[in-house]
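note to self: dont lose this again. the chain is below, predicted strucutre after it. 1004 aa total, dont forget to put it in the shared folder this time
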Amino acid sequence: MTPGRRSSTFTRLLRHGFTDPSAAERLLDGPELAPVRDDPVLLEALGATADPDLALHGLVRLLEAQDGPTAHRELLDTLIAAKPLRDRLLGILGASAALTDHLARHPSDWQALVTYEPRDLHPGVEEFERGLAGAADPVSLRIAYRRCLLSIAARDVCGTTDIAETAAELADLATATLRAALAIARANAPEDAAACRLAVIAMGKCGGRELNYVSDVDVIFVAEAAEDTTEAKALTAATRLASHLMRICSETTVEGSIWPVDANLRPEGRNGPLVRTLSSHLAYYQRWAKTWEFQALLKARPVAGDADLGRAYIDALEPMVWKAAERENFVPDVQKMRRRVVENIPAAEIERELKLGPGGLRDVEFAVQLLQLVHGRTDPALRSGTTLNALQALAAGGYVGREDAARLDEAYRFLRSMEHRIQLYRLRRTHLVPVAEEDQRRLGRSLGLRTDPVAELIREWKRHTGVVRRLHEKLFYRPLLDAVAQLAPGEARLSAEAARERLVALGYADPAAALRHLEALASGVTRKAAIQRTLLPVLLGWFADSADPDAGLLNFRKVSDALGKTPWYLRLLRDEGAAAENLARVLSAGRLAPDLLMRAPEAVALLGDGDGTGGSGRGLAARGRGSLEQEILAAVGRAENAEQGVTAARGVRRRELFRTAAADIVGSYGTETSPAEADQGALVDRVGAAVSDLTKATLAGTLRAVVRDGWGDLLPTRFAIIGMGRFGGHELGYGSDADVLFVHEPQDGVDEHEAAAAANKVVAEMRRLLQLPSADPPLLIDADLRPEGKSGPLVRTLKSYEAYYRRWSLVWESQALLRAEPVAGDEDLGRRFTELIDPLRHPAHGLGEEAVREIRRLKARMESERLPRGADPKLHTKLGPGGLSDVEWTVQLFQLRHGWDTPGLRTTRTREALSAAREAGLLSAEEAEILDEAWVLATRVRNAVMLVRGRAGDTFPTEPRELAAVGRYLGYGAGHAGDMLDAYRRTTRRARTVVEELFYGDGT
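---
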């Protein structure tokens, strides 16, 4: 061969899509293809395949396997002369290494691809049964099955059939295979066959006639006794037959296996009997079945065995399927099922998952099935087991928008085609898009993407998953808007009853009110209504994810009524992706955040700039104390009097409380682009720090306003506010009072009585102004931790504190002072107060044993006396076993005993002190982790109760929706409130065990 010719062939091979032209040239020059190597038809046909290199290699293998020269010549002649065979055979060889292996083992099976009659184009179950007719054992059944599979795959890769027809043919072949397997099982056990009537019900994709190349074939078995046979004997015989049928299809032989037969969709799953009578099936579905089991029955179809029994099974159970939406637990079940189950998918695989990943096949299938369950009760046209047929029927009936249905149909067909071609290559069950470039290239070419197969494949795949992700929720909600807006006359749309049914199914308790809100928001031809119609389908889905969708929608209407005419509001929601979802989460998570927002709806702007870096302080990122104080003091400076100044400070406080609550809700719920915060302690710390800093800034501003209004620039006495309790510990929650002490020191030359009067007047005015009725939440100041408690003076001088603590201080006061920290007022006075109390709270050489016993007595008395009447102690976050008090008193006992020689313990913060105690070896890492987990959880519950109910509480709500909302905030899905309570009890029980050892024992 001349070099020039070689170069020319090499170039032609490259042009025809070969990636290894040198190897291809050697194969073409080999003896098997010598007679046809220069025939342009062959090269053209190879270049049209998904993988020309693979197809050429497979063709050589098939030719090598032919039985003698005659067979070899017949194959070559037919290949060159008959285009249908050429396209089919080479198409198979270029797309499926597994079917190439089959042809190499059974070299005459290529002849199954020769016939090209009209009936051959769309075979049904009868044609496949004829193809399997000679199979009398598992091995011959596998050979015959793959011979039939060859013809299906050939029609598929050549484009003779579309994805829906291919999936239907695969299901028909599975039906014929199940019948053949049952026939083999019956022939091997004639006595069992005579003792029972056995029907095989196909479920899942086989039942829906939309099967994959390689998939579990889901079945349910139902049996009845033959005449003169007891039910027990018949069930035993039927179980043996069913088990044998499953083994015939599933077991690995020299010819491999066919596919697994999976009977786990049966009543009770793998724990239930493999075969039941019809009456037993009925009893189970009437009493015990869950919503997903009725969803599974949507696709039930009798396929093998006793046809009359199979039909009776369907006739008996089908009415129950269409009443499933009336069941008591339907709504929470749907909410659970709607949330994508991706926890079990490895993180590295989730983006490659065609079936279960975001925007995957399961999203389309679930959406269609849910709408069938809701609306199929009254519309028999929707009762199809095939996804694409059902989607078409939903569109025709106005249950989904026609355009949405068309786009979903296109996306589903593309994703299913990808799935089919991936599985066809090795005939392995997988839903993962391959990562190797050569695999992606073959996959892209098999789908007709020839210019740049890899780049085009990735682009189209991402485009279609994006369509599914965007439409998955809109599918449920857009028709609701079409029904109320009534903008397109002549279009099929939901009836009022169908709209009501759908809202109930999606968790709305008052569908009539919800429809009124939708009508108010979406009706009309204004720009505002048009944007609302675009936003609402997605917002409604986010509301439905919450425990109270009705409240979310009502709150959204209120905000929109207040802000709808401001140009930036709808633009913010439309153009900033995070803003709309953040708003939906915040409006439906409980009462507190919406109440704060309704008092000044313009705060919705905070939800847009998610990074919080805007110079205007927008975004949900917390602002530091310095920034807050600067803004509040500036507002106070502009005010005409103290009341106006404090009103301005309280307005800032309300807005910043909303910012903190919104960030907490979004962090706890997660969004579509960022998961929920995994570190619960970080969420608690952020809330505690933000609310504490805000309270300090508010008190500083209020103090400035009161002093300026009453005394001008100089108060007759130096004045400082000391934070106590959770305030001093930077651990305030949304509903916490501000525990404080007030300390003053007369200015030089000022009479003590005058100074005391001024200080008391400041305190009284601050408390009054911070509690005035207004649109802003009050800030309650609690000074009960002062010396002598409520009986003592509200304000003392530094000298008075010194004298009291020197002569009268009790051990509980030393304990309370552990969390004392200056928060506002004269910094030097606050520092000197700290120096005064340090020896009390960190006594030299620790506490004496009598003092330790006194603290333990106080704690025991508090546990028995202060718990509210009727409260469940095990669910009380503050005083219950393993709750906040248990953990805090244990940590504080460490601080009192060891703070003098362990600097890390000299902190006002509980978690920081606990960490220092662990580092000092005062408790084990495991004990510290147990206490920290309990403290964080109890704090999260208190925050959740305030967010949900709008008022503070120390125990879980009893109203089911409120309890569910607390659960959502804590990361529990719909229907899992019981799991949340069990987890709380378990966590606090472990903490109490540690507390009893460390606090009441000798552990500290």
